[in-house]
Amino acid sequence: MTKFNSKYLKPFKNVYVIILLGFAIWMLFFDAHSLLFHHELNSEIKELEYQKEHYKKEMAKDNKAIKELSTEEGVERIARETYYMKKPNEDIFIIEYEDSIAKQKQDD
């Protein structure tokens, strides 16, 4: 048993090896630039890149809506469909299907 202990523990009796091992442990786990900290930062970067792509898509949809609203026909269509506006001599009939009514109640 003593041969086993001395054979594997011999490198740890050297002061330089102990200092190097302590330094490596400190740098890997406890330092401000540790691997754990970098892992957290990398996951945060991935999340922010996902959000960036999401907002780019939202901006593209908004730009499309702005472009559509820049024409007179687009403004009129949105006003009629969304706000049920009408011209003075018109009648509006709103047709709702049973499945769309149930869906609206669930959304509210």
From TrEMBL:
Question: Keyword annotations for this protein?
Answer: Coiled coil, Membrane, Transmembrane, Transmembrane helix
**Coiled coil (UniProt feature):** 38-72
> What InterPro entries does its record include?
FtsL/DivIC (IPR007060)
- Its transmembrane ranges are 15-37
> In its UniProt entry, what is this protein called?
Septum formation initiator
State the species of origin: Winogradskyella aurantia
